[in-house]
Write a structure and sequence with these properties.
2 domains, elongated, about 0% strand, 5 helices, single chain, mainly alpha, about 70% helix, about 140 residues
């Protein structure tokens, strides 16, 4: 098997560091040999020839799986649950206030629509009255409906 160059080894180790620290540049960040090769900018066959880097990568993956998952203390869980409860209460209040505002605006729109209808009715009556009393030389302009 042909050995890989020092530059390729460096590229693979840099790519491994990026993948393991969740800072990929060229891939989706999945911890696979194919992504390691892509991240390093080399073909998969070249990555497979870099046996030492692959062993390091696989050992790092094994160590990650064995690492204990950080546990939240019961006190912190209680704090977070209390915060969630508080935020849900605030959300309910905001929703209630927004519904009231919408209802008030709907009522205002209704009042304005009624006022506009009344004005239109009075305007039509005024035009009709002017029509009856107007002389023959006056031309009334009717609003377009």
């Amino acid at each position: 098997m042909t050995p890989v160059s020092a530059a390729t080894l460096t590229s693979l180790r840099d790519a491994m560091a990026r993948l393991l620290s969740n800072r990929p540049v060229r891939t989706d960040g999945r911890l696979t040999v194919a992504n390691l090769a892509r991240e390093a900018g080399v073909c998969r066959a070249t990555a497979n020839r870099a046996e030492t880097v692959l062993k390091e990568f696989r050992m790092a993956l094994r160590d990650r799986r064995r690492a204990p998952v950080a546990r939240l203390s019961k006190g912190r869980i209680k704090e977070l649950e209390a915060e969630v409860t508080l935020l849900r209460g605030q959300e309910r209040q905001e929703v209630c206030q927004l519904r009231q505002a919408v209802q008030i605006m709907a009522q205002q729109v209704q009042v304005l629509a009624l006022a506009a209808a009344v004005r239109t009715h009075h305007s039509a009556e005024a035009v009709d009255e002017a029509d009856k009393t107007a002389g023959r030389n006056v031309v009334l302009l009717r609003p377009v409906s």
